[in-house]
Specification:
With 261 residues, this protein is an all-alpha fold. Helices cover 75% and strands 0% of the residues. It has nine helices and no strands. α1 packs parallel to α4, α2 packs parallel to α5 and α7 crosses α8.
């Protein structure tokens, strides 16, 4: 895998996680108290740094074949989950993920929660909401960076891809102070799910001691193959979906809910 492919894969995956974390932080800040929300975000980043500092070096001590087998299996779990949701959304069986709706739900829940602070934290709910959102999504970012970086023996490039994603999403979020509803997150999840699944198959196979023809270049066939299979399932399910069939010929050409874009 070239450095650019590694960078792009990590960048796309981390962008999705960063958008979801930003939605939670914005909900806590706009509906409750910005200071407490930022305190929670900062505390989560410190906790993440400590977690990575402890667990990161331990990953490099695992034998490479065992690491690839375990990481490949985990990537398959994550990748197939994302890909399944993308296929269901693309075929109309599952509603598209809407950051605006998710933001509204978080705001409503935050406003309904009890008020009150603890110590230096003025609003404990805003603090804990931001902390949990940042820490959980951040753990997924850290997992992506550590596993991809160690497997390709290029942690700096993986870390750079994650940093670029987080900085970009944070900058846009600060500028507009609104959920990034225009980010094609469903399409990104389809792309990332495809890549994670393909890499999971690739690394899990290598972890068993087998070797792919052409080594890393086999990914140039494996990634499109996974994408075509997923698109094929999407097309088949879309044709069998009554809601999609009934939408054909509707006035004004109303878009079908399950579009990947």
């Amino acid at each position: 895998m070239s450095s650019w492919v590694l960078f792009l894969t990590v960048f796309l995956a981390c962008t999705v996680e960063a958008v979801e974390a930003l939605t939670i932080i914005l909900a806590a800040g706009t509906s409750r108290h910005w200071g407490s929300a930022l305190q929670g975000t900062g505390a989560a980043l410190v906790a993440l740094a400590a977690t990575v500092a402890v667990l990161g070096p331990a990953v490099s001590l695992v034998p490479i074949n065992a690491l690839r087998l375990v990481v490949g299996a985990l990537l398959l779990v994550f990748g197939l989950q994302w890909l399944r949701k993308a296929v269901m959304r693309g075929s109309g069986y599952k509603a598209l993920h809407d950051e605006t709706a998710a933001f509204a739900e978080e705001v409503e829940a935050a406003r309904a929660a009890a008020t009150g602070g603890r110590g230096a934290v003025r609003d404990w709910y805003a603090f804990t909401l931001s902390f949990k959102g940042t820490f959980l999504e951040g753990l997924e970012v850290a997992f992506i960076v550590v596993t991809f970086g160690n497997n390709q023996k290029n942690v700096p490039v993986a870390a750079l891809g994650a940093l670029a994603a987080v900085v970009l999403v944070a900058a846009v979020g600060i500028a507009v102070r609104a959920p990034l509803a225009k980010v094609p997150e469903n399409t990104m999840k389809f792309v990332v799910g495809t890549m994670l699944t393909a890499f999971g198959v690739f690394w899990a196979t290598e972890g068993t001691g087998a070797h792919w023809p052409g080594s890393d270049t086999s990914l140039l066939v494996l990634v499109p193959a996974v994408a075509l299979i997923a698109l094929g399932y999407t097309a088949v399910l879309r044709r069998s979906n009554p809601a999609v069939k009934n939408s054909v010929g509707t006035p004004g050409g109303a878009p079908v809910q399950g579009s990947l874009t």
